[in-house]
Specification:
By secondary structure, the chain is an alpha+beta fold. It contains 15 helices and 15 strands. Strands 3, 6, 7, 8, 9 and 10 form a 6-stranded antiparallel β-sheet that branches. It binds heme C (HEC) (6 copies). One heme C binds next to helix 1, helix 9 and helix 10. This is Cytochrome c-552/4 domain-containing protein.
Amino acid sequence: MKRKRWMTLGIFLLTLVMVFSITGCGDTPANEENNNNENVNGENGEEVPEETSDIPEYGNYVGSDACQGCHSAEYEAWQGTWHSVSMQTPDMLYDDIFNGNLEDGITWNDLSEGLGNPIMIDEDEPSGIAGTKDFVVQGTEVNDVDGVYIYHLGDREFEARFTAEDGEILHTVDVEVFGHGNKRRATNFTNIYDGGGNYLLKYQVRYDRDGGNWSQTLDGEPTGGVWADRNDVRRWDDNCGGCHATGLNVPANLENPDLIATELVADMAVGCEACHGPGGDHAADPMNEDLIVSFSDMTTKQQNDACEQCHTRTTANKHFDPEVRWGDAYGFLPGDNLEDHVEFILPTWGEEWRRVSADGKGRGWHQWGFDLQLGPKADWACIDCHSVHGANDEGQQFREYGSSPEVIVTMEESCAPCHEGVYDTKESIREVMDGRRGWDDEPEFSGRAMQHTFRLDDEGRVIGLPEEEWPEENNWPWLIE
Ligand code: HEC
Ligand code: HEC
Ligand code: HEC
Ligand code: HEC
Ligand code: HEC
Ligand code: HEC
C-alpha cells in the first residue's frame, strides 16, 4: 500500500510520555467510576521504562490479503462482518473527508472548530486538563504548554498545535489521523511521529443503530451532537491496537516507538489471523495441517477464549508491567488458555457499582464471556449464536444453531428453533437481554442493554447469579478452585 508520510521533520520528541490506561474501550463517561487501574505515568517528564523481558515472540503474520487468493469465499464473507471494518485507515478517513461526508453529515469542519486533543490530564480538575507543561519538541524546548490540539487544515492535512493557556499557538507539527469504529461510535487517533507512539485524538461520536442517528448514545440518550471525549489521553499502541487491529507488533514497537499504526500491525482490521493465528507458515505450506488453527479442532473453552481475547475485560497482561501496558491479550494465540496471558477484572458481589457488581452481572461492554458463564448457556460457544464469516441483511452476525459450516440467519431465527413463541421477535429477545429493565428502584445496579446472562430473577429482571449463589471469595465461580 502506498502511504504518504506527512512528516519527515526529523525527530519530534515528547519527553513527556503519557500512558493513560483505562479499562477496555473508551466507553467510560467521565463521571462513571473507573476501575482501580487508571494510571498516569511519567507526568513529570521522566521516561517510562517498559518491561522488555518475558515478552512473547511476535508470530509470522502476513495479513488477510495474503489469504484471499486461496480462500476467496471466506475472505468475501469476512468482508461482510464488522471485524473487517473495525478500523478506519488513514485512506478511508481521507476518502470520507474528500466526499465531504464523515457518516451522516459530520464533517471535519465540525472537528476543527474547537475540538482537539488536550494531552495533559489532571484527574482532580473538573475540566480534566492540568496546568501547563514543558515539552521538548523537535529538539526545541516549548514551555507552558496548556494543551495539544489536532486541527484539520483542509485536504489531507492535519496538524498538532501546542497551545498556551490563552490559546496562543506555541508550536505545530504535522500528524496523520486514523480511527476506530464504523458502526455506532467512532474514535480517532493521530500518528505523531515523535517516538512517543500513536495518540488518541479526543473525538467520539455515538450512533444509534436503530434510528440511524449519529447524535444518540447507545442507550438512546441524545448527546447533543458530537460527543467529544475530552478526558482521554491514551496511547493507541498500548491501549487499543491489540484488539482493533491484528498482529500488533509489540516487540517492534518497543524497539522503535516511532512506528506509526499502519507500520505496526498486519491488518488494520480484526483479520483472519486474529482467529486462526499467524498464517505466514501456513500460506507457504498450506497442506501441513499443523500450521493454521481451525475452530473445529478446539474445545468450546478454546473457541470462546479466541473471541474473548478481545471481547472481555481484563486488568493486566501478564507479560508486561501493568503500570505500563495491560489493555489487551498480546501473547495469546488461538488455542491458548486466555488466563495464561491476562488477569480478568474481578466481580464485586453485592457491592458498590463497578463494571461488574451486585449480582456479578456484567455492567459494561466487553463482558459477554463473563455474562454467558453465569447463566443457563454457560457451556455454549459464542459461535453457537454468532456468525463470523458473514452478516445478515441487517448487518447482524447470527448463525443457525448447530449449522456447519455456518448458515447466516436473522437474530430471531437463531433463537426461534428452541424458543418459538417466547424469544422469537427482536422485541422479546432484546427485552430478555436488557440489563436496565426493572432496576428503576436501584438504578446504580442496572446494567446495559444486551447482557448475555440469559438469566432472569422472579421479577423478570436480567441478573447474573442470584444472591444465594454469590461465592464468598471475590472471584468468578469458574475460577475458584
Ligand atoms: C497458497 C494457498 C493458501 C494460502 C495463501 C492460505 N491458505 Fe489456508 N488453506 C489452504 C489449503 C489448500 C487448505 C486446505 C488444507 C487441508 O485441507 O488440509 C487450507 C486450509 C485452511 C484452514 C482450515 C484448516 C483445517 O484444519 O481445516 C484455515 C482456517 C485456513 N486455511 C486459513 C488461512 C488463513 C488465515 C490464511 C492467510 C493467513 C491462509 N489460510 C492462507 C491454502 C492456502
Ligand atoms: C480488550 C479488547 C479491546 C481494547 C483494548 C479496546 N477495544 Fe474498542 N472494542 C472492542 C470490541 C470487542 C468492540 C466491539 C464490541 C463493543 O461494541 O463493545 C469494540 C468497540 C469499539 C468502538 C465502537 C466501534 C463501532 O463500530 O461502533 C470504539 C469506538 C472503540 N472500541 C474504541 C476503542 C478505543 C479508543 C480503545 C483504546 C482506548 C479501545 N477501543 C480498546 C475491544 C477492545
Ligand atoms: C482481535 C480482536 C477480536 C477478536 C479475536 C474477535 N473480535 Fe469480535 N469484534 C472485535 C471488534 C473490535 C469489533 C467491533 C468492530 C467495529 O464495529 O468496529 C467486533 C465485533 C464483533 C461482533 C459484531 C457486534 C455487533 O455490534 O453487531 C460480533 C458478533 C463479534 N465481534 C463476535 C466475535 C466472535 C464470536 C469472535 C470469536 C469467534 C470474535 N468476535 C473475535 C474484536 C474481536
Ligand atoms: C445464545 C446466543 C448467544 C451467545 C451464546 C452469544 N451471543 Fe452475543 N448476542 C446474542 C444476541 C441475541 C445479541 C443481541 C443483538 C441485538 O440485540 O441486536 C448479541 C449481541 C452481541 C454483540 C453486540 C453487542 C452490541 O452492543 O451490539 C457482541 C459483540 C456479542 N454478542 C458477542 C458475543 C460473544 C463474544 C459471545 C461469546 C462469549 C457471545 N456474544 C455469545 C446472542 C448470543
Ligand atoms: C472472528 C474470528 C474469525 C475471523 C476474523 C476469521 N475466521 Fe475463519 N473461521 C472462524 C470460525 C469460528 C470458523 C468456523 C465456522 C463454522 O463453523 O462454519 C472459521 C472457518 C474458516 C474456514 C473453514 C475451515 C475451518 O477452519 O473450519 C476457513 C478456510 C477460514 N475460516 C479462513 C478464514 C480466512 C481466510 C479469514 C480472513 C479472510 C478468516 N477465516 C477470518 C473464525 C474466524
Ligand atoms: C438449541 C436450542 C436453543 C437455542 C437456539 C436458544 N436457546 Fe435459550 N435455552 C435453551 C435451553 C435448553 C435453555 C435452558 C432451559 C432451562 O434451563 O430452563 C435455554 C434457556 C434460555 C433462557 C433462560 C430461561 C428462560 O426461558 O427464560 C433464556 C432467557 C434464553 N434461553 C434465551 C435465548 C435467546 C435470546 C436465544 C437466541 C439468541 C436462545 N435462547 C437460543 C435452548 C436454546
